[in-house]
Amino acid sequence: MKKILTAILIIITFFIIYFLQSNFFTWFTISGVMPNLFIIFVLWIGLFIGKKTGLICGLIFGIYIDILIGKQIVISGIMLGLIGLIAEYIDKNFSKDSRLTIMLIISASTIIYETGMYAFQIIKWGVNIEILAFLKILLLETLFNVIISIILYPLITKLGNFAESKFKTKTIMTKYF
Amino acid sequence: MYKNRKTGIIGITITIIILIIVVILSNTNLQEISYIENIFSSIVMPIQNGLTFLKNKIAGNESFFADLETLKEENENLKAQNSKLEQSLRELEIIKSENETLKEYVNLKDKYKNYQTIPAYIINRDISNFSKTIVINVGEKDGIKPNMTVIADKGLVGYVISTTQNTSKVQTIIDPSTSVSSLITSSREEVIVSGTLENSKTLKVEYIDADAVLLENDNLETSGLGGIYPKGIYIGTINKIVNTQNSIDRYAYAETAVDFSKLETVLVITNEQGE
């Protein structure tokens, strides 16, 4: 029952994030650059719920975003799914109890996700390569995501530990074996 | 433990404040200092009012000694009147806003009377920093089909890439993956205009003929080639020319006619040269 409730909460959170991204963060920007809360959300699912849920949620959410606003379907799904998968891998190898670790994971994930998205645009649409403009956006977006993760850190860990206790039976850190 | 928690809360609060300051500063034109004046006046005005009140009292202003009951009654009446006026003001503001939207539609219709158009509102914007698509509130039910051109009061917006029953997705000309075949209005030279990652106002002008005469402040309009955009729709103005060693590679930057950050209403051209 609690698992169903958590699943419903995940869906509700997805929609809250979607409306925040498409309304509030279209004007609450740093030099016109928006954060990407979906990366943080999928990372959270992968890190604390696991069991391939991060991958599946990333895929579903990404495809849904593409259908709603994207130019092409699937790419956001693939990239967010990848982030979910990376989160599960990180969960097995690193401790997520440190604020610094979470910040580094979010930075790395934002860089991987956005670089993948931009590379896809170049390959699929033949977009002009603008390295400096891309790096500027990437840097600001990463910074924005990190700042948000600092603000949300207590909530992330509290809800994460709750979800972990419901979904995961045991956590083994393979690096110690 | 308690100290760590307290430090954490202080840290989060400071981070939130820094974030808000960064966002505000990065989006504000510092030359506009009128709001700073407002802040200063709001600090000074209560003190100024108090001083005036004291001055009046000392000067023996008779109105200060007026009957308290009468003043209370008068105050109640004024409050009621004020709330009525506030309500009327709100209603008038709604009417004014509707009127402005309708005027915008009429202006748009007049400007592009050669085309049959459908007005629409923007209901959603892209959530990615690397693409610039928008969603409008008209769809298949209203006769919208993919590849139809979307314009605004000042010029070209983009084209419809997909539709649902009630909405349509529009790829704007500022999207880096959009290329528009264009003409330089004065010299009639053909060029290709595409979106950039720079900002939501800048376009890149490429494939400029080696012999073409290109000047700053030249206007750009659609050439009609490519099968999507009709001919003669204003795109923007060239504001920077970048000359390279090889004149074939030279390019320019243009500013869009439409301010995409403030764009709210658009028109979808359903057919060229309509009745």
Task: Please give the count of helices of chain B.
Answer: 3
Helix coverage percent of residues of chain B? 25-40%
Largest sheet of chain A: none
CATH superfamily of the largest domain in chain B: Rod shape-determining protein MreC, domain 1
**Major pleated sheet of chain B:** 6 strands, antiparallel, barrel
CATH hierarchy, class of the largest domain in chain B: Mainly Beta
Please give the count of helices of chain A: 6
- Percentage of residues in helical conformation of chain A: over 70%
Question: What is the alpha-carbon Rg of chain A in Å?
Answer: 16 Å
Describe this structure in words.
The complex is a heterodimer of chains A (177) and B (275). Chain A has 177 residues and is mainly alpha-helical. Chain A is 78% helix and 0% strand. Chain A has six helices and no strands. The radius of gyration of chain A is 16 Å and the shape is globular. The model of chain A has no long low-confidence stretch (mean pLDDT 86). Chain B has 275 residues and is an alpha+beta fold. Chain B has two domains: 40 residues; 160 residues, Rod shape-determining protein MreC, domain 1 (Thrombin, subunit H, Beta Barrel). The longest helix of chain B has 44 residues. Chain B is extended, with a radius of gyration of 28 Å. The mean pLDDT of chain B is 81. Classes of the chains: A mainly alpha (177), B alpha+beta (275).
